Amino acid sequence: MKRRNFFGATAGAAAAVSGISGCDNKLRKPSIKVPEKPMAIDEGGTLAGKSLEALRDQYLYDLNEYKEFQYKYVVDKEYGGYCVMTQWDGPPTSYDKRSWYEGRGTWSFSHLHNKIDPDPRHIEAARRSVEFVMKHLPKEDVFFPASYSREGKPGDREINLYGDIFIANGLTEFSKAPGNEKYWDIAKDIMMKCVRLYDKPGYNASELTPNGARFGGHWFILIRLATQMLESRDDPEVKAIADRCIDSQMNYHYNPDYGLYNERINHDFTRPNNELAQQAGLGHASELLWMTLFEAVRRKDKALFDENAKRFRRNLEVAWDDVYGGVFINLDNVDENRWDSVGKAGWGQMEDMIGLMCIIEHTGADWAKEWFNKLYTWVMAHFPLKPYGLPLWQDYTNRKAIFEKDPKGRRAENLHHPRQLMLNLLATERIMKRNGNISDVFA
């Protein structure tokens, strides 16, 4: 798959302004430096120690490896959909399917087709998954089935909105391919249904949130869906949901006592008077923040972008493992500095790299370039499985990210990894076209 090469020399140093005084001694006026516009690249014209061409080529290599593995082992050519549980070198270990991964895979293949590579295989894989799940589109306010047999026999229904919103997200990207426009409306119907269910008292009630809960993870999947829908069509109801997501994350889930995000709060948006007030979901907060950054770019809202970039930096600095590198995803008790797990989730690393690239592209902030260099270099040293003679990357791993080959195989992850590759590939190519300059979104 060929992508055009764009890269030129970086801008030179700013010129000094000088003049001659009217005095007989002809003293020069002091030089006044013209501020340099921030660049999206380092002084050497690189990101993470790579030229933009080399970075782009690495994204293309990893993306090609991903899609070919998916076509060989994950895409079900007989029944449609995706069998994501595989052996390390390929063949499936289970043919069962899940709504989460149907929606995720459909988004990934549709986005690959729409934005990067118009290979008809991509939209065909998405189409067959869409047909697979649409057979069970609920006619009332209930969620999709959580799982299916290989042939499509449904299991129990989902108990929260994740599966439905992943499906709606896939449908939204699928609707951007010619002839599929009707699926935008279906995606909106699913979104509105999910919000109605989410707003019912008692939603996902537990001992810690007896009247129901609000989840940081729900706001990020809703705002990402809203942003992608609004890219295609202006709609006041969808815009209102995006506004609500922003308000909920910035004013309710954000805990000003320690500058991090509580994953769960009460249904009425108050903070629980129990252990939940000490739990910071760093991984979900990273997603919530970068997805709000993307919406701020769409709106050209610099104030919203800047505040979320500041919070993103704080979240990343707390999540970083100063001993072994990489980011943690769940801080179980802030005051006690007690972590739910010290393992490293691949998706946590991917989401932070997306957020950093977004901040780099639109602001050129030195701190973001430094962190991208640090995280990208660490990920590339620990997650690709090529050194072990295996395809793709590892996903969940131990604190040191030392590869341990589980005899049960793996989940051939079909969202976080390819999404990071695609979004950051596209950002890299845009920076190349601008000769290393930041965007003019907020100019």
- The helix/strand series, from N terminus to C terminus, equals EEEEHEEHHEHHEHHEEEHHEEEHHEEH
Task: Summarize the biggest pleated sheet.
Answer: 2 strands, antiparallel
- The CATH architecture name of the domain at 1-50 and 236-443 reads Alpha/alpha barrel
Strand content: 5-15%
In CATH terms, what is the fold-level topology of the domain at 1-50 and 236-443?
Glycosyltransferase
Shape verdict: globular
Structure description:
By secondary structure, this protein is mostly helical. The protein has a domain at 1-50 and 236-443: Glycosyltransferase (Alpha/alpha barrel). Helices cover 47% and strands 8% of the residues. The protein has 12 helices and 16 strands. The chain has helices spanning 52-74, 99-116, 120-134, 162-174, 182-198, 216-232, 236-253, 282-299, 302-319, 346-363, 366-382, 416-433, and strands spanning 16-17, 32-33, 46-47, 50-51, 85-86, 97-98, 147-148, 213-215, 254-255, 260-261, 264-266, 331-333, 338-339, 344-345, 396-397, 410-411. The strands form 8 sheets. A two-stranded antiparallel ribbon has the order 1-2. A hairpin with a 2-residue loop joins strand 3 and strand 4. Helix 4 runs parallel beside helix 6. The longest helix has 23 residues, at 52-74. The relative contact order is 0.13. Residues 4-28 have low confidence and may be disordered.
What is the gist of this entry?
The chain is mostly helical. It has helices at residues 52-74, 99-116, 120-134, 162-174, 182-198, 216-232, 236-253, 282-299, 302-319, 346-363, 366-382, 416-433, and strands at residues 16-17, 32-33, 46-47, 50-51, 85-86, 97-98, 147-148, 213-215, 254-255, 260-261, 264-266, 331-333, 338-339, 344-345, 396-397, 410-411. The model is unreliable at 4-28 (pLDDT under 50).
